[in-house]
Amino acid sequence: MRTKQNILITLPAFFLFLFSIFPVCIAADEDPCAGQGVTVRNLSLDDLWYMREGSGCVMLKRNYSFVLQPETSIGVFSDMLCTEQFCPLLRYGDYKSYDADGNCRVKILSGCALSDR
Predict the structure, then answer these.
(1) Which secondary-structure segment (H or E) carries 115?
(2) Closest by alpha carbon to 44, among 113, 96, 95?
(3) What is the 3-class SS of 46-103, one letter each residue?
């Protein structure tokens, strides 16, 4: 008799616990980099040029890092006037998709390849 009573109390408590954990699992899917952005480092072998949101061209030297915010995209160009595109236009989501370890850091390698390693 006591065992049935324990089961009747324990089972609903267990389900309450499961349903209270579910929102925490959903919250884990949020973008942890949204507030701080993704730090991108140039590890290609060349000095390239880039333009950010319509501003002038700035040299993207080797080991140069910049932060890319969610609403930002960046174009990498092969000339100082930013007219000849070297890499396709990359958006925040493109960089974020390569952030496998979730530390909000990505590298540009030779040939416009993105990597987290």
Answers:
(1) strand 114-115
(2) 113
(3) CCEEEEECCCCEEEECCCCEEEECCCCEEEEECCCCCCCECCCCEEHHHHHCCCCCCC
* DSSP SS3 for 19: helix
Same domain, 63 and 45: yes
Split into its structural domains, the chain has a count of 2
Name 100's Cβ contacts closer than 8 Å, sequence gap at least 6: 116
Residue range 27-44, pLDDT digits in tens: 456 888 989 999 999 888
Q: Are residues 63 and 109 in the same domain?
A: yes
CA distance 14 to 110: 53
For position 26, what pLDDT does the model report?
47
* DSSP line for 20-51: HHHHHHHHTTS-TTTTT-EEEEE-SSS-EEEE
Same domain membership, residue 20 and residue 73: no
Please indicate, yes or no, whether residues 21 and 66 belong to a single structural domain of this protein. Answer: no
Q: Which domain holds residue 106?
A: 38-115
